[in-house]
Each structure stands twice: as C-alpha cells, then as structure tokens.
C-alpha cells in the first residue's frame, strides 16, 4: 500500500511539473542580428512557427525585434528559440523574457529557481520582485561578445561561462541542482 502511494505521488509530480514549470513565463522578445531585408525576418518567423510552445510571433522590422507569446501549459525551452534563429542563418543580439514573479528575493550574484527555471541574477541590487518583470538574458550567444565579457566581471562563478550549474552553489540550501541549465539575467 505504501509503495503504491509513493508511485501515485511520483506519477502526479511527473505529470504536473511540466504545467508548473513555465506557468510564470509570459513571453520573450529578442533582437536578431544579421538581418538585411524583410525576407530575412520571414526566414526567422517561419522557423519560430515550427516550435511547439510558441503561440504567436510578432515582428517589428524597424528594430529587428521579435515578440513571442507562449502557449499556456506547454514547457518553454529558451535554447530551442536560439537554435531556430541560428538554423535560419542569424544570431541573437539581445534577449528578454517576461516573467510573473511572486515575492522572489534576489541579490547580486545569487541563484533563484522560479517555476522550474534556474536564474542567476547579476548586476542587481538586493530586492524583492513581485509581479511582471522583464529580465534580460545575458548568457553567451544571447548578447554581444563585448557585453558577455563585461558581465563576466560581475561574477566568479563558473556557471556563467558554461550555462550549467557546477560547483558554484553558494550554500547547501541553494535549490539549483548541479548540471542543470541556468539562465543568467539582469533587470
């Protein structure tokens, strides 16, 4: 009976985690680089429309800005977006995500797990974030090499170079597991 109860509990967790994981991720915006004409943006637009978690793609051609809305209750993988843009022959110059946060206490150079996504806040003041926040992704290949180098001066943690958790947890209470993907962000 106890084993059956544990199996039911684990099955419930496995079933519901995908729905909880991205419940707070609202949308993403990115500037593409390498665009020279409207046909270029059309290539990215077509590639992004094949991504199963993207509901819609809006394009601002004047700013080379793509605004992505996500399907409700479908897990989002930000790295898939980057890969689709690169597969279309372009790169990402800047990337933002809009997240609905609920009393998340952040501080500079610290990790926070929000709805299954791991964030490393950099170049921020200690504060409590509540409500809709627009975070800039500052990982490699989501900003220019010059900006990446500048942000690298704000941390000595190895996860900024690799994009995955290593032995850089500041405490045993850190909720981010070693080897998991971590997104480096600033406000």
Main beta sheet: 8 strands, mixed
Number of E-type strands? 8
The outline comes out as: globular
Termini Cα gap: 49 Å
The order of strands across the largest sheet is 2-3-1-4-7-8-6-5
Instruction: Specify Rg, calculated over alpha carbons.
Output: 18 Å
Helix percentage: 25-40%
Tell me the β content.
25-35%
- Which H/E pattern describes the elements? HEHEEHEEEEHHE
Number of domains: 1
Indicate the CATH topology: Alpha-Beta Plaits
Please count the helical segments: 5
Low-confidence stretches: 5-23
- Determine the structural class based on helices, strands and strand pairing: alpha+beta
* CATH class group: Alpha Beta
The CATH architecture assignment turns out to be 2-Layer Sandwich
Provide mean pLDDT, rounded. 83
What are the main properties of this structure?
28% helix, eight-stranded mixed sheet, 5 helices, single chain, 187 residues, Alpha-Beta Plaits
Q: Would you give an account of this structure?
A:
The protein is α+β, with helices and mostly antiparallel strands and 187 residues long. The chain has one domain (2-186): Alpha-Beta Plaits (2-Layer Sandwich). Helix content is 28%, strand content 34%. It is built from 5 helices and 8 strands; from the N terminus they run αβαββαββββααβ. The chain has helices spanning 2-21, 38-48, 78-87, 145-152, 159-162; strands spanning 25-33, 54-60, 65-70, 91-106, 110-114, 117-121, 127-137, 183-186. It has an 8-stranded mixed sheet with strand order 2-3-1-4-7-8-6-5. The chain is globular, with a radius of gyration of 18 Å. Mean pLDDT is 83; it is low at 5-23.
